[in-house]
Design brief:
Chain lengths: ~325, ~240
Amino acid sequence: MLIRKASDIPASEITPEAVYIDRRRFLGRAAGMGLAGALALAGCDAGDASAAGRTRESGGDVVGGAAGGEGEGEDEVTEERRVTEYNNFYEFGTDKSDPAENAKDFRTRPWTIAVEGLVAKPAVYQLEDFIRPSKIEERIYRLRCVEAWSAVIPWLGFPLADVLRRAEPLGSARYVELTTLYDPKQMPGQRRALLDWPYTEGLRLDEAMHPLAILSTGMYGKTLPNQNGAPLRLVVPWKYGFKSIKSVVKLRLTERQPATAWNRANPDEYGFYSNVNPEVDHPRWSQAKERRLGEFRKRPTLMFNGYADQVGRLYAGMDLRKNY
Amino acid sequence: MPAPGGPPQLQHGPRAAARRQRAGARATAASRAVSRAWWGKPLVFTVALVPLAVLAWRLVADDLGGDPIEALEQETGTWALRFVAITLALTPLRQLTGWNALVRYRRMLGLFAFFYATVHLGIYAGLDMELNAADVVEDVVEHPYVTIGFATWLLLLPLAVTSTRGWVRRLGGRRWNRLHQLVYVVAVTGTIHYLWAVKKDTLRPFTYALVFAVLLGWRVWARRRPRPADRRAGEAAA
C-alpha cells in the first residue's frame, strides 16, 4: 500500500545529512528541480512501521541535470508498461519481451545478500534485514541504455552508500563488485554461454559512495517487477544501463578493478566506466542521440546522462575516451 | 529421358526411366494446371503483404514494444532476408518436385524482397535517422554494418529494375542470368549486415547464414551432377 502525505516534519531533520547537503547540488537549474520526495511504503517488504519520518518533497522532478529549459525535451516519467515490458535481462532471454514473459515465476523470496571482501563487517543478510536500516526514498532518474534508448523511472530505493558505510570498508578497498544470482533452472538465459554467468558489475568506491547511486527495491510506487531486477538492483543513472545490475546477491569490496560481464563479452565495446558520453561513440553506433521510450523523435544525449553537475568531479582529469 | 525440368536423375535402367517419365508427366500436368490458375499470383501477392499489414496493425495498436521504430526496422529487415531466402529456395524446390509453376512466382517474390528492403531502408532513414542527411551519411561511412546494409540495398536495385521480360530480352538470357546471380551476393551481404547489427545474440543471423549456405550450396552441388542442361531463357543458372 502506498502512503503519501505531506509531512510537517522538516526534511532537514529526517533526511540523512549527506543526501540533504547534496540536494543543494541537485537544485539549481530551471524551475522545479529538486530531489524527489522521500517516501516510505507501508506494508512493502522493505518498510516496517518503524521507518520513521514519512516526508514527501513536492515536485518529484528528475534529479539533477538539464531537463526542461535547455530545449532538449522534457523529462516526463515514462509510461510504466514501457519500462516493464521492454527489458534487457539476458538471464531471461535476449528479446526485449522475454524477461517479462520468462521471469513470471522467478522466486524472489527467500533472498540473501552477502557483503564480503575488504570490509570490517562482512555478513550474509536476509533481504528484509538488509533493507531495514535504510529509509526508502523515491528517486526519479533517467536511465540510458547503451543501445541508445532511454526512460525516466521513479525508483524506490536507498543509497548504496548506506550499505557500504555499515560494512566499514577497509583502507585497501578501492572498488565494489556486485553479482547477480546464478540459477539456470530459473533463468533460462543462463543455460547459454551468451555472457559469462553470473553477471557481475563494479564501481569505483567513490562512485559507489556517491549519493546518486542507489539500491532499488521498487518502482512506480510498487515492488520491483521480476523483469526489472527484483528484489534488489543497483541504479547508477549517469552510466549506461547495463551497469545497473539486477537481482543482486552479493557485494564485494576489492582492491583491484572487478571484471564486468559486458566488458568480458566485448572489451572493445563496453568499458568499466561506461559513463554516458555523447562524444564517445560505441564502435558500431553513435551515442550522440537517444530515443526515449514512448517518444517518436530522438533527443540529444547528455553528458553523464544529465548528471554532470553531480558526478563530473569524480572524473576530473580522466581521459573519458580511453576510460570508456 | 525425363521431361524437361523433371526430377533429377537418381536411378538408372529402363524401369526407372519409365517411372521418371510418368512422374515427370504428372508433375508437368499439375504445374500446367496451376499455371492456368488465375488466382495464383494475386494470392501470393496478398500473402506476401501480410507481414507488412501485421506490422502496420501492431504499430497502430502500440503493440511494438518500447521502441516501435527499432522493432519496425528489425522486422522489415528480417522479412527482406526471408524473401531473399524464399526466392532462392524456388529453384531447388522446382528441381526436387518438378513443379515448374514455382518459377512463375520468382520475380514477384524477389521484388518483395526488394520491397521489404526498401521499407527497411525508408524506416531507417526516415524514422530512425529522422531524414537527417548528415547523420545518415555519417552512419553509412563510419559504421560498417550500415555500410554493408546500404550496399545490399544498392545490389538489389538493379535486380529490381531489370526484373521485367523487357530487360531479359534487352540483355539477353545469358547476361541477364549473370546479373541476377547478384542475388547470391545479396544473401551473403544481407546476412553479414544482420550479424554485425545485433548486440550479442548472433543465433538468428547465424541461422540465416545456415539457410543460405544450404540454398547456395545446393546449387553448387546440383551444378556438379550430370543432368540435362536447361537452356530456357529466363531460367536462373542453377
